[in-house]
């Protein structure tokens, strides 16, 4: 996880949002990111190589922020200098870390004749604003820096040496945006100087993992909120619940258990233990909010329900908000392969009216730590709004499949996990899932792979050919449906085939209904059953999608 | 970062807090952790080796949670099984991942004759409660699992084979607690089965980094809160501010800049841009809250101020809370070497009265991602309440010092960063800093190393011997004070010596006062100046501490 990934996600989830305010200058996240890419291009044009240091000596400004991101974007290492140090101390640091490029703002321009003694420097960039009116006018400092003291003997602005002083805005405007170098993990993000007991300054090397972990940890501490009481309603073997084994422990909250979900026991536990958080599949939410007598229980302690596994129909969402008015809903999309979070639909998008209304049909935006791309069959990224396979990478992606190196390599090809889900990303970074590459059925929040059911059916002597598909179900989202072609001269009834399956596979995977016929199933040229054609009549007028 | 680190931190920060509620059974975090260590001991006594899998087939319970933590604590890999699968499907998974140990609760006991076909199994542990009254009575399931269906032909409880069925509570009670195996990072935390398109189940290997990152990411998303507007008041070169370059970007909030801190510009920016968050040193907070006219500015948007670098005197804390009533204060302790967060004092401990009052004198508890120990000179951990050096490890710890392999090895010896700060940890996991191993002075939030100042003084021809110490200062926390012994026949005035220093080092490092004498300074047997003796008269009646 690297700094620039955080910047790119900020653009993805909040492109038009205000990223910087510096006096009268304001920029959106999209604008900031564009400028960062251009400044990175300018630095590379000046000869910046991977791992090279770029020093900065300036007061706070939006350009200082751009520097923080443009340097790693270009593959470099930041080196922010203490504005209070004397010039000889700064020269010692420059000689130690040997940056090729130094940025300064106008306030420190007068130090350049001394700083340029550092032999490594090839370029100086002036990153401030014109000195009229001075940015520091009216400012005061607890320790006035030496260079601010009026000294009539100060040399004139430095413009020569080291190939001249470049202007920040000019080189940025002239540059082509660079691609993100994607520095991450153990790559050094910056060198931060600290005094040493020996008097010699020490350059502390902080990695991208260091600075991003620190920021997440600080955010978590500051957002901690009220004590957690987490109710394990979904089965704990399932990653949708077991992720909260870790999460509620990080909160050092209270774990509450019921052996298995049922609406009454869940409501009782919420009331008795003042439960604040839980994770569910939408069918559980549905059964809970429609449970007769739900109003008789005190569920006012509920703060948030995280759900995932299949869509929450708008009617259920509306009812849920009416029954649990103080509770926020977060829809997750993910897989076991991603621990499982890939995207999350924030509670504020669980609305059926107003400007945010359309987003409830999506699975939300990528969570921090995870990147998402929509790609074509050759893994080339597609434009926004175009349907393709959803692929993802980041800290949540599995190490691999146990003892399955080929399937692992296939799933993780190119360094991205291929989800097998098909969808598109809108202009605001929301992912809409429209189909699955695989024909997996999701019924009551459980993944069911048709081939397993088909394998069971094929073990019945009367079955010549079969296809198992998901069809719409009010209760389960999808129900397992089989289409069977019988062998010549054989016969079998629907109930018999279902009973046959029960002897081989889990009950929830067995067909709920079977169509029995004699006509061959529609096949592709390559000899594959065309399941989309079989599904079409069932799904007429409604989109088949999951989240 | 591993799962068990999260458990240990929960114990550290909330030992007496309620960790689990299972029906009428309740356990604190301290109790849970003790049981986890004992269960881990029992698993190791059964022959569990590093990386061995332990399977679990059970409904939700507190023991399921203990299993999640005890297995990695013992060095193993968890393998939670889907309770809805048919026995042959489970056998296929057992044969694939080959666990030596299987835990089941009573509900699944009847499957044991089938499950024990898995050749790898050496031990079975019965982890449920006695079947009277059945835990699932009154329960219902959307998909009733096969094994719950009343079947008079069910075999009697399985007690034979695989060396008999062990009882969870019995082996736990008999076991010696094991030390934490400290599995982390790329170590496999668990194998989670998911169906494959080929019908064969695939075991998804999730690492400790996977599951912990996922949990942090989910927590961040759910806690995100209102949009952030972060004001850069502290200088951006300093890690205390630059950490929020990353943090506020993760929030995709708005960055606001003022070139340099001053109270009026800060208050103006807060009012104009509706600033929600900022980071300061206590001297800044002090100047802000005591600024004449502070009440004339609208600072109601402020949600949190993160401060660190030196202590906030109780009077300033009280005044700050009066002036910014809606704002929370979080005190951080750390170093550049730790990106910088090591501990954080939560806002709720910023109180001068009541049961939490004493904690404001501490620097708080370790943040997530970081572990802290108090050790003696041989790096042996000391009991709570005993003063020693503060050492730390975790994701925020630097890669090292640039071009200083020996100093890096010294600082990171034994895999822990040695902070050079001296303090103790109380029974509740709060760190109290009482002194520094190094003689560093912290003045106005800036670190000043006496040896640098002494080096400057020594360059004056009249100086024979000198020592630089920190003395109490109302304004700066500490002020730089020099004690100088002049050479025979030489003389120098206080102002002259200070002026001399200004030519060599930054103004804020120069002595504010100088004692000039002829008597040699007190020395240790090893020839070191005894600075504690020099400091003693200045600090009489007050504790010298930082945070």
Note down, in words, how this protein is organized.
The structure is a homodimer of 547-residue chains. Chain A starts with a helix and ends in an 8-residue tail after the last helix. Chain A folds into three domains: 3-134 and 155-217, Rossmann fold (3-Layer(aba) Sandwich), CATH 3.40.50.980; 224-326, Rossmann fold (3-Layer(aba) Sandwich); 441-539, 2-Layer Sandwich (GMP Synthetase, Chain A, domain 3), CATH 3.30.300. In chain A, strand 14 and strand 15 (341-345) form a beta hairpin. By secondary structure, chain A is of the alpha/beta class. Chain A contains 15 helices and 26 strands. The first copy, chain A, is 28% helix and 25% strand. In chain A, the strands form seven sheets. In chain A, strands 11-10-12-13-14-15-16 form a seven-stranded mixed β-sheet, with helices on both faces. In chain A, strands 4-3-5-6-7 form a five-stranded parallel β-sheet. Chains A and B meet through helix 1, strand 1, helix 3, helix 4 and strand 8 of A and helix 1, strand 1, helix 3, helix 4 and strand 8 of B. Strand 9 of chain A pairs antiparallel with strand 19 (400-401) of chain B.
């Amino acid at each position: 996880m690297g700094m620039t990934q955080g910047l790119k996600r900020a653009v993805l989830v909040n492109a038009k949002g205000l990223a910087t305010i510096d006096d009268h200058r304001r920029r959106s996240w999209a604008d900031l990111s564009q400028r960062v890419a251009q400044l990175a291009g300018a630095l590379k044009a000046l000869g910046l190589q991977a791992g090279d240091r770029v020093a900065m000596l300036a007061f706070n400004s939006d350009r200082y922020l751009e520097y923080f991101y443009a340097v790693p974007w270009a593959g470099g290492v930041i080196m922010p200098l203490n504005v209070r140090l004397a010039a000889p101390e700064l020269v010692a640091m420059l000689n130690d870390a040997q940056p090729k490029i130094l940025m300064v703002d106008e306030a420190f321009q007068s130090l350049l004749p001394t700083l340029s003694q550092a032999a490594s420097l090839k370029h100086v960039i002036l990153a401030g604003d014109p000195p009229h009116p001075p940015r520091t006018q009216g400012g005061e400092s607890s320790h006035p820096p030496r260079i601010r003291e009026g000294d009539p003997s100060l040399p004139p602005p430095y413009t020569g040496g080291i190939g001249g002083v470049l202007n920040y805005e000019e080189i940025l405007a002239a540059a082509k945006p660079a691609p993100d170098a994607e520095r991450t993990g153990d790559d050094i993000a910056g060198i931060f100087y600290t005094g040493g007991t020996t008097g010699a300054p020490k350059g502390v090397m902080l990695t991208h993992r260091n600075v991003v972990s620190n920021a997440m940890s600080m955010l978590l501490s500051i957002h901690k909120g009220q004590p957690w009481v987490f109710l394990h309603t979904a089965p704990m073997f399932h990653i949708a619940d077991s992720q909260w084994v870790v999460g509620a422990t990080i909160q050092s909250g209270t774990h509450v258990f019921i052996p298995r979900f049922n609406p009454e026991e869940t409501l009782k536990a919420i009331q008795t233990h003042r439960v604040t958080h839980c994770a569910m599949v939408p069918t559980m939410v549905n059964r809970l909010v429609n449970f007769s007598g739900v109003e008789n229980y005190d569920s006012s302690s509920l703060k948030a329900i995280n759900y995932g596994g299949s869509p929450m129909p708008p009617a259920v969402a509306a009812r849920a908000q009416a029954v649990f008015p103080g509770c926020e809903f977060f829809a997750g999309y993910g897989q076991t392969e991603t621990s499982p979070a890939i995207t999350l639909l924030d509670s504020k998008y669980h609305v059926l009216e107003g400007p945010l209304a359309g987003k409830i049909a999506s699975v939300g935006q990528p969570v921090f730590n995870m990147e998402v791309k929509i790609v074509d069959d050759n893994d080339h990224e597609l434009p926004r709004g175009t349907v393709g396979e959803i692929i993802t990478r980041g800290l949540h992606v599995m190490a691999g499949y146990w003892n399955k190196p080929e399937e692992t390599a296939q799933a993780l090809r190119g360094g991205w996990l291929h989800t097998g889900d098909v969808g598109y990303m809108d202009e605001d970074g929301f992912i809409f899932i429209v189909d699955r590459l695989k024909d997996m059925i999701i019924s009551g929040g459980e993944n069911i792979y048709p081939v397993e059911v088909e394998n069971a059916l094929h073990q019945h002597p009367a079955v010549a050919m079969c296809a198992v598909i998901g069809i719409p179900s009010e209760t389960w989202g999808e129900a397992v449906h089989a289409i069977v072609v019988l062998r010549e001269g054989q016969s079998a009834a629907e109930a018999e085939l279902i009973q046959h399956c029960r002897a081989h596979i889990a009950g929830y995977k067995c067909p709920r209904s079977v169509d029995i016929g004699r006509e061959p199933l529609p096949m592709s040229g390559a000899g594959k059953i065309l399941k989309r054609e079989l599904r079409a009549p069932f799904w007429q007028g409604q989109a088949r999608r999951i989240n």
